[in-house]
Specification:
2 copies of one chain form a homodimer. Chain A has helices spanning 16-26, 42-46, 72-79, 101-104, 113-121, 143-156, 175-193, 207-219, 229-232, 234-242, 258-261, 270-280, 295-309, 331-338, 348-351, 357-372, 377-380, 385-394, and strands at 3-12, 49-54, 57-63, 89-98, 130-134, 160-162, 198-202, 224-228, 250-253, 267-268, 284-286, 319-323, 343-345. Chain A is an alpha/beta fold. Chain A folds into 2 domains: 3-104, Alpha-Beta Plaits; 113-395, Alpha-Beta Barrel (TIM Barrel), CATH 3.20.20.110. The radius of gyration of chain A is 23 Å and the shape is globular. Chains A and B meet through α2, α3, α8, α10 and α11 of A and α2, α3, α8, α10 and α11 of B.
């Protein structure tokens, strides 16, 4: 029988063996008391079972037959549902999920992946990290102002421009007009520099509206879409990436994840979220930066990025995105930690440059070029004044907003 | 300017005033560094502001203009987004959200509410608590077996039968056939007893599939639908309740909530979830039982149930559901805590009755009748053998699975 294996950190008033068994029962064929309605043979076919226990971590196997194919809400209800409220378990954290090949193969995964996105941008050959920016302020620019900021960022050399996670289709910046004006500017950047810059339009909404927005965006020349996967749901991502009228790469933001991921002893780790995002077809996913306060943060983000990039039953890779408090001074350490297949995203770290957005974008690209050429930023600033000015302002330090993303 | 007020519990390395200001900035017009792209006047119109601080709790006001009407994912990204990951804030918990009337009025809310559900079941006059059951085992019965268990529960006197939160449309129990067979039995119960029993079919899936399932369920005679609102998303609930071809009451399950709600110092409390569920149109919502381990649990559930039942800018009420480890012995304390406008839901507490499901359902109804008549269970068992047998097995104690739901 094929099993989906899930690892849980468990803290209980019961011995872990008993707590893990109770968890497996509650999430499959059991309840809190013996019942008269259980047919014989059910447990053998459908009961989840404890496969291994190591310290505080129990591995539980769920028979694939217990799942409805491609129904992520049902999947979450089973592996991440009521178990969090069990009275006898004080803390429980879903650490990892490992579905078997047959399960993974039911999903199409990313349409583009790292290769596909690099092909659009034209970085397949040099394989350098991409530089992205988030339009700032988060909210408050009108479409024309947004397009102007995007133009400066594009001319300065970014590969990707994205809406912030709270900007969708508010009256102060209507989505259709924003897309039209930004894409006009991106066309101008293409004419003037020959470079293609992606603009990830945040189409986040309920699934029906989201799909309408995606269709309309395709018609109006969008070259990338963005969704907030945790607030709108994995199924919305799945619907979007299965829609053959929307053949665009999808930038996946994880806003709200901290409500579940931040407590290291309870909730859901980022890895299961990354697994589901890859199954459902995200082409880019925020995973964090190298600058966490604990070693374990760095190891966790490395693990996430490695998972997104590795071969996985034929599904395409996902481009990891480092975001939150980034600026040119920290580029070398990010690339050292995660390698070149990385999107380095700076919002404040570009628009906060003393000489403005275009200079800020140049400084980020200069930091990437220096890193690719194996030259220290200290040496590189001699001939690169934008980088010099950025380092003067921000140095190479971590900012307090280091856990955003 | 109209504001959506949100209360946050905050623990920070910064003084709370500064932490709250940083949170308000991050979630509206600010970022971690000063930027060159902010137009004048933006902060005045769109910046969130700290309205009040009391102990560890900050109240932050978000201008309504910052939100896209009816876009719950965007709403969550704003009031419950990146803030959970801010490096300078160690723990932060969204405790409550209070939208103004103009905001609430954009939502239709529940179609039926407590009154509407009571009208279907025929309990408007006596106003007694409803008794519900969850088919057990959670998974593993085929459609015929499910219908047989439902028939026994219906004949025993329950008002509501629901699928478990992990049962959708798996191959061992196809949804269409399950619905057909259960509704045949419910018709039989109606013929034999004159009583209408609701069957909440769990249509949880991605929104598109969910809406298809709802339409098909209506055609096939369903009288209630159920969704797991946190795994599928509030927008799915919203789409379902706005669909005028699906005029059925909606039973809302909150599975996975413990990943966000359980840590009392971080994440999201149940109250914001209840507020969103009412806005989006749930007619019934799981809120917990009276038997938590701490007084604060009881007070919290009381607060939730009071919110669901109170007048709220013209939106209909929501029927609170107590579920998880319930059995006849605890009925009086539940009703004492929460009043009669309550669904008492017992799975194991009915199907685990020593004489089977029908006797278990009778015992629950007897406990409700005794409570309504002001008679103690100890006295009532003299003439009610099913109740007597239930008390022999379970007593009046709390079971360890007391925090399910």
């Amino acid at each position: 029988m094929e099993l989906v294996e899930c690892d849980y950190h468990i803290e209980s008033i019961l011995p872990i063996e008993r707590a893990a068994t109770a968890l497996a029962a509650e999430q499959s064929t059991g309840t809190w008391t013996d019942i008269s309605t259980k047919p014989s043979g059910v447990d053998k076919r459908l009961a989840a079972r404890v496969l291994n226990i190591e310290g505080s971590v129990a591995t539980i196997g769920f028979p694939v037959e217990i799942f409805e194919i491609e129904n992520i809400p049902q999947f979450l209800a089973t592996v991440a549902g009521n178990l969090f409220g069990l009275g006898a378990i004080k803390n429980v954290r879903l650490l990892d999920i490992r579905p078997p090949k047959s399960f993974v193969k039911e999903f199409r995964g990313p349409r583009f992946g790292i290769e596909g996105v690099r092909k659009i941008v034209g970085t397949k050959k040099d394989g350098r990290p991409h530089v992205g920016t988030i339009i700032k302020p988060k909210v408050g620019l009108d479409p024309k102002e947004t397009a102007e900021v995007a133009y400066q960022a594009g001319m300065g050399g970014v590969d990707l421009i994205k809406d912030d996670e709270t900007l969708t289709d508010q009256s102060f910046c209507p989505m259709d007009e924003r897309l039209e004006r930004v894409m006009e500017k991106m066309d101008l950047v293409k004419q003037e520099t020959g470079r293609t810059v992606l603009y990830a339009l945040n189409v986040t909404a309920g699934t029906e509206k989201l799909l309408e927005r995606a269709d309309s965006a395709v018609e109006n020349g969008a070259n990338m879409l963005m969704i907030d996967v945790l607030t709108t749901g994995f199924s919305a991502l799945q619907s979007l990436t299965k829609d053959d009228s929307v053949k665009l790469p999808i930038h996946v933001h994880r806003t709200m994840h901290g409500a579940m991921t931040r407590n290291r002893r309870h909730g859901i780790s980022m890895m299961p979220i990354a697994v589901l995002a890859r199954l459902c077809g995200g082409d880019q996913l925020h995973t964090g930066t190298a600058r966490g306060k604990m070693d374990s943060d760095l190891e966790e983000v490395k693990g996430l990025n490695d998972f997104l990039k590795k071969d996985w039953f034929g599904l395409k890779s996902v481009f990891p995105v480092a975001s939150g408090g980034l600026h040119p001074g920290v580029v070398p350490s990010e690339v050292e930690a995660f390698g070149k297949n990385l999107v380095l995203q700076a919002g404040g770290g570009i628009h906060g440059h003393p000489d403005g957005t275009e200079a800020g974008a140049r400084a980020m690209r200069q930091a990437v070029d220096a890193t690719m050429d194996g030259i220290s930023l200290e040496d590189y600033v001699q001939d690169h004044k934008e980088l010099a000015r950025a380092l003067e302002k921000w140095g190479k330090q971590v900012e307090w907003g280091d856990l955003y993303g």
